[in-house]
Amino acid sequence: xxxxxxxxxxxxxxxxxxxxxxxxxxxxxxxxxxxxxxxxxxxxxxxxxxxxxxxxxxxxxxxxxxxxxxxxxxxxxxxxxxxxxxxxxxxxxxxxxxxxxxxxxxxxxxxxxxxxxxxxxxxxxxxxxxxxxxxxxxxxxxxxxxxxxxxxxxxxxxxxxxxxxxxxxxxxxxxxxxxxxxxxxxxxxxxxxxxxxxxxxxxxxxxxxxxxxxxxxxxxxxxxxxxxxxxxxxxxxxxxxxxxxxxxxxxxxxxxxxxxxxxxxxxxxxxxxxxxxxxxxxxxxxxxxxxxxxxxxxxxxxxxxxxxxxxxxxxxxxxxxxxxxxxxxxxxxxxxxxxxxxxxxxxxxxxxxxxxxxxxxxxxxxxxxxxxxxxxxxxxxxxxxxxxxxxxxxxxxxxxxxxxxxxxxxxxxxxxxxxxxxxxxxxxxxxxxxxxxxxxxxxxxxxxxxxxxxxxxxxxxxxxxx
Length: 466
Fold this sequence. Notes:
Layout: E1 10-15, H1 28-38, E2 42-50, E3 58-63, E4 66-73, H2 83-95, E5 104-108, H3 112-123, E6 127-132, H4 135-144, E7 159-162, H5 165-174, E8 181-183, E9 210-213, H6 232-248, E10 252-256, H7 263-270, E11 278-282, H8 289-294, E12 298-301, H9 310-317, E13 322-325, H10 330-333, E14 340-343, H11 348-358, H12 362-379, H13 385-396, H14 416-428, H15 434-455
Parallel strand pairs: 1-2, 1-5, 2-4, 5-6, 6-7, 7-8, 9-10, 9-12, 10-11, 12-13, 13-14
Antiparallel strand pairs: 3-4
Helix pairs in contact: 2-3, 4-5, 6-11, 9-12, 14-15
């Protein structure tokens, strides 16, 4: 491997989530991971996005000194099962030169980015490790397992970084033959998230106890729990049942996160006996999270499914206890009764009783928060992330390498007529602008798509990207 003869490895970080000018908060944790790695390796980021009018097929920028290549390819909403093959054919022509002298691909997410990285890693060939964070293992990969589109993607994996022990166990269950599956916490920036510092939001001037929930009500299409995946509906029901006691205790609640100011949530709030105790913050930028945590006394994570929620370690680092569901990686963060509480997921009565029991215990909560900070310092310091990833890179590079020919994951998911059409369009439009390129593709290929849909069974492919 050429990289082993150099002082620094050349690593490509592939992800479908990274900050952009139109979405600066998107993929912020991937940016933080990239910043931790750039001091240890020669890092290049490939950001996979869907093509839209006005987006270039490939655009080179720098973000905080990190080279970022944003690559786009057409995605068809009505034929989602073709989106992976489309990216394979159209994306590869844009990025193939970036893989010259590349030692290793580090993909984020064992779904779209991971499967695409496996396909391109086989083409080069080059070693590949993936990083799993939660939703990919909890819902996407189990649903896609066995489909022709993603079949064999794990054969081009030489290591896996999991953000919790629970995720590592789940991945090994799904793919027992993949080597070097390691638990590597992304951790938390202990300087950015600290007990002292600015506090903002409507809870600042309220008396204890102030509860904070930042999970929102996102409609996860791949989760059986849908808008209650983060436990927001469980919390609303628990607060309503406990409201009389919470009013007597002078407790308050701030609800933030995706869709937290949606019509249905505002309607729930309006029907409370005392709506003034509940505040709706809407979606918060990541930079606003620590100041909002500092304005609270306890952070609530009533999720029904999780990897390892970032807000759990951020709350602990800010010296606040966490009341969390006993699912996923949450028990790895919380010591029950010491740094917070572990409660049964989805059980409204248990959450109601916890709210009532601690609505008058501000001193106990403060002691829990102090112990939580110590636990974050000992186990979840983000400064250890980079070196742990380097150790994974080293063992992954010792694994045997296969590939180097034109066969790859996506080919198995396409019929011959589809491959021929895609190849023809790619050759015809290589010199066109992106708008003409895509329109020509759609005009030529839509008939083949229609024929394929109605003459063969659909295949489940990794979800499309934004």
